[in-house]
Design goal:
With 349 residues, this protein is α/β, with parallel strands linked by helices. The chain has a single domain, classed as TIM Barrel (Alpha-Beta Barrel). Helix content is 39%, strand content 12%. The strands form 2 sheets. Strands 2-3-4-5-6-7 form a 6-stranded parallel β-sheet. A 3-stranded parallel β-sheet has the order 8-1-9, with helices on one face. The structure holds S-adenosyl-L-homocysteine. One of its GO terms (molecular function) is metal ion binding. This is Radical SAM domain protein.
Length: 349
């Protein structure tokens, strides 16, 4: 039997052990599914994502958008194109819009402010996912009505973080995430699984960081080597390791909103369905319009590059129902409950 208390207390030795063996996987998945049901229920929230620019000034070794990549058709959506998409999403009844891009300074404080102001008129929650910006900007955008900010911590190993992010440090990333939290954003962190050199202990550190931050959202996906990056020839993350991290994250932060990520769906055709059975409670249908969509290529094999670019909405709804869960109809804010009332200490509690 696994020791749920030790997981919840982020006992690093124990987490490292669980991440080093597949012996307890089924039990971990089962507990995570129970924790998901008890703490966040059967609703799965939809978050429509608009990937509005693939320009990036950063150099992350794993990412296809990195500034050095010349094999990418770069695009920027105009404000009107972004707003037109946002209106379509609102009309489709989806209550969260995620604005994601590379780190692209073309979208100034004022441009992002304008987008927030206009999109908030549509009665939706807004998640920003545009990388590291000035603390002052975070504050301005929060005051204008931005609800959430998604910025994975990528890895909580300071050494690995420094290797993968030239010119940046985990300490700095952490400072940004804590500032977002302090400003009142629902704050999303998360990591990749199977990064070159990443150990089970490093992944235990990821879980401990998610708890320390009390992450409101947790995005976890496999690392998928991109041929247009310096990590082209490295191995990638596996389905079972990624599912295990999703499941452990659910047990460690029981009320967090946790997506079954696109990357998980990209390494296995049923990856997202499995994610939903191992603790995830969010899906992010891709609403980036064509012709831009295929150019937001973080990694190869990214799914959902359909011709009909709203198809992801129906597809993800069917997926949720297909695994016996319910499509959420609200904004999907993090559920606030008294954790003590719900303590799960053993399988079947
Ligand atoms: N600029 C934004 C968005 C980054 S792209 C930000 O900094 O938050 C969104 C996520 O894609 C990243 O956080 C990273 O975890 C993931 N990603 C990038 N390259 C990847 C790859 N090769 N394999 C898997 N995930 C990748």
């Amino acid at each position: 039997m696994i020791e749920i208390k030790k997981i919840q207390n982020v006992d690093l030795d124990y987490l490292t052990y669980l991440l080093s063996t597949d012996e307890h996987n089924e039990e971990i998945f089962k507990v995570a599914d129970e924790v998901r049901r008890k703490y966040v229920g059967t609703e799965v929230h939809l978050r429509a994502i608009i990937e509005f620019s693939n320009y990036c000034s950063q150099h992350c070794l794993y990412c296809g958008l990195r500034a050095e990549n010349r094999n990418l058709n770069r695009y920027r959506m105009t404000e009107e194109e972004i707003l037109e998409r946002a209106r379509l999403i609102a009309k489709l009844g989806i209550k969260t819009i995620v604005l994601q891009s590379g780190e692209d300074p073309y979208y100034t404080t004022e441009r992002i402010s304008y987008l927030i102001t206009e999109i908030k008129k549509l009665d939706v929650a807004i998640t920003l996912s545009i990388g590291e910006r000035d603390f002052e900007e975070y504050k301005i955008w929060k005051e204008l009505g931005a609800d959430r900010y998604l910025m994975r911590h990528e890895t909580a190993s300071p050494e690995l973080y420094a290797k993968l992010h030239p010119g940046d440090s985990f300490e700095n990333r952490k400072a940004h995430l804590f500032e977002l939290k302090r400003l009142g954003y629902e704050t999303g962190a998360g990591c990749m699984v199977g990064l070159p050199g990443q150990t089970p202990y490093d992944m235990a550190l990821d879980l401990a960081f998610l708890k320390e931050l009390d992450a409101d959202m947790i995005g976890i996906g496999p690392f998928i080597p991109n041929p247009d990056t310096p990590l082209a020839n490295q191995g990638g993350g596996t389905l079972k390791d990624t599912l295990k991290m999703v499941a452990l994250a659910r047990i460690v932060v029981p009320t967090a909103n946790i997506p079954a990520t696109t990357a998980l769906g990209s390494i296995d055709p049923f990856g997202r369905q499995m994610g939903l059975k191992c603790g995830a409670n969010v899906i992010m249908p891709n609403l980036t319009p064509n012709p831009y969509r295929p150019n937001y290529s973080l990694y190869p094999g990214k799914i959902c590059l359909f011709e009909k670019d709203t198809a992801c909405v129906e597809c993800t709804k069917a997926m949720i129902k297909g695994v016996g869960l319910v499509v959420g109809e609200g904004y999907g804010y993090r559920r606030k409950i008294n954790i003590e009332e719900y303590k799960i200490t053993a399988v079947g509690d």
